[in-house]
Design brief:
By secondary structure, the chain is mainly α. It has six helices and two strands, in the order H-E-H-H-E-H-H-H. A two-stranded antiparallel sheet has the order 1-2. Helix 4 packs antiparallel against helix 5 and helix 5 packs across helix 6. It is elongated, with a radius of gyration of 18 Å. The chain starts with a helix and ends in a 9-residue tail after the last helix.
Amino acid sequence: MLDTIFKVVWVIGLILASVPRVRYTRLYRQKRIADDRNTGLDIGLDMLLVALPALGMFFIPLLYMLTPWLDFADYRLPTWASLVAGLVGAVTFAVALWLLWRSHADLGRNWSPKLEVMEEHSLVTQGVFRHIRHPMYAAHLLWGIAQAFLLQNWIAGWAFLVSSLPLYLVRIPREEQMMLEHFGDEYREYMSRTGRVIPRP
């Protein structure tokens, strides 16, 4: 019973997470690109880095919920532990969704799904960006942790967290290099007072 409830919580979270992305993707399509880093081999690498988390975020959990194929990797906690894990997962997912929504809202027209700088791009340092430089990645990390608590399956539960790591390890440094080249000392100063995905004390 609890297992089913927390699967439903995960599905609701997935739907809620899609709302800001759809909205800001529409805005993104209306913008003009000033500096596009998606050329040659970089396009293929970036597509792979984005596809891997999509597997862990959508496809593997849905495969787990809609088919018996991943049942062999299920584990069962005692009822009290399952309840605690599910509640921790639900609260963590709520924080992740808030951070994801707030990140999109604070970035506004500056958001891009790719490594690129838009025309009239401004450096956003307000809202959640006052504390961390990459709050969307932080939100996805929290989502991955929440998913591990909500889905009691060694594959589906951990799929997003594991599949996101290559994206974080490769793309964040490339994004920061692009921002340094575009904004120079302004971005360097911003880096000195913020954390990458964890707020700096």
